[in-house]
């Protein structure tokens, strides 16, 4: 039988390895039928046609193989909006919303903000939405990522006066200027980290995950070079691995930042370190 409830029960069994088998199954079927989850509950006994069943089974097989649900759906919720997502960018995660929260707490109504390695645009777009009088510049080395971020900005009706995009390898193409805040979720995983062979990261862009020097090369470059791109009183905020807090604080101190502090994510693990230029 190809009833909705039967298909979902079978799918949940196949997705037993997932952290959320029921939700995954329902989202995939919603994608095929172009309906809401509430529709599935109200029409649990409806029969699907063979083409719908085949499309669902194709998506299900990809999810069973480990492909991230965000790539299969082509979107991901972040902050207060929905982003278009492709395999060209990292999948925005709830923990990264901490970067947005900490940035907003340090931003006046009018300021200049630089996001390095914007990917889908998640962080920069959230800041632009919450601080409509700030000027945000979002950069990435990947043109595909920039194209996606720009598309997401258009979907959210954000004008070029509020957010602009530039292709740059960190600061390489950015003319010397001063920002009130620099924020980034850069690559910070070591090349030999076993987590690279597990879960969603197996399908995410390697270059957005892995950094040289055991994961510290990009963090160090942003901290050291960023100092020269800050106004006096400006901030740098960086996401990093949960074991890297102490080392990242050391990098901030060595580069002459003040008010250096590490904040914890939803799981209580070190996730974001901030530093301020006061001299």
Provide a descriptive summary of the structure in words:
There is one protein chain. A seven-stranded mixed β-sheet has the order 5-4-3-6-7-9-8, with helices on both faces. The protein has a two-stranded antiparallel ribbon with strand order 1-2. Helix 8 links the parallel strand 4 and strand 5 (163-167). The longest helix has 15 residues, at 50-64. It contains eleven helices and nine strands. It has two domains: 4-65, Ubiquitin-associated (UBA) domain (Helicase, Ruva Protein, domain 3); 79-276, Rossmann fold (3-Layer(aba) Sandwich), CATH 3.40.50. Helix 1 packs across helix 2 and helix 2 (21-33) runs antiparallel to helix 4 (50-64). The relative contact order is 0.10. The chain is of the alpha/beta class and 279 residues long.
Feature tags:
279 residues; 11 helices; 38% helix; elongated; Rossmann fold; 2 domains; Helicase, Ruva Protein, domain 3
CATH level-1 class of the largest domain: Alpha Beta
- Please estimate the helix content: 25-40%
Unreliable segments of 5+ consecutive residues: none
Largest sheet: 7 strands, mixed
> Can you tell me the CATH architecture of the largest domain?
3-Layer(aba) Sandwich
Short overview:
This protein is an alpha/beta fold. It has 11 helices and 9 strands.
Annotate the secondary structure layout:
Blueprint: H1 4-14, H2 21-33, H3 37-42, H4 50-64, H5 69-73, E1 75-78, E2 81-84, H6 97-106, E3 112-116, H7 122-130, E4 135-140, H8 143-155, E5 163-167, E6 179-184, H9 212-215, H10 217-226, E7 230-239, H11 245-254, E8 258-264, E9 270-276
Parallel strand pairs: 3-4, 3-6, 4-5, 6-7
Antiparallel strand pairs: 1-2, 7-9, 8-9
Helix pairs in contact: 1-2, 2-4, 6-7
């Amino acid at each position: 039988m190809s009833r909705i409830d039967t298909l979902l029960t079978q799918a949940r069994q196949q997705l037993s390895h997932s952290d959320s088998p029921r939700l995954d199954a329902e989202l995939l079927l919603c994608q095929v039928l172009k309906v809401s989850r509430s529709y599935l509950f109200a029409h649990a006994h409806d029969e699907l046609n063979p083409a719908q069943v085949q499309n669902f089974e194709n998506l299900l097989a990809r999810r069973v193989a480990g492909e991230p649900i965000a790539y299969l759906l082509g979107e991901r919720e972040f902050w207060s909006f929905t982003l278009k997502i492709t395999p060209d960018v990292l999948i925005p995660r709830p923990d990264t919303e901490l970067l947005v929260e900490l940035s907003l707490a340090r931003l006046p109504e009018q300021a200049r903000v630089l996001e390095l390695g914007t990917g889908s645009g998640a962080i920069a777009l959230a800041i632009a939405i919450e601080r409509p009088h700030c000027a945000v510049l979002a950069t990435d080395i990947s043109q595909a990522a920039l194209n996606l971020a720009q598309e997401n900005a258009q979907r959210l009706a954000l004008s070029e006066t509020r957010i602009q995009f530039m292709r740059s390898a960190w600061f390489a193409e950015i003319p010397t200027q001063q920002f009130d805040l620099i924020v980034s979720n850069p690559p910070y995983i070591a090349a030999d980290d076993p987590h690279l062979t597990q879960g969603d990261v197996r399908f995410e862009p390697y270059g957005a995950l892995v950094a040289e020097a055991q994961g510290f090369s990009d963090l160090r470059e942003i901290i050291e070079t960023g100092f020269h791109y800050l106004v006096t009183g400006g901030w740098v905020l960086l996401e990093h691995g949960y074991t890297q807090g102490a080392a990242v604080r050391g990098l901030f101190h060595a580069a002459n930042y003040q008010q250096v502090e590490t904040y914890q994510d939803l799981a209580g693990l070190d996730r974001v370190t901030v530093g301020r230029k006061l001299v």
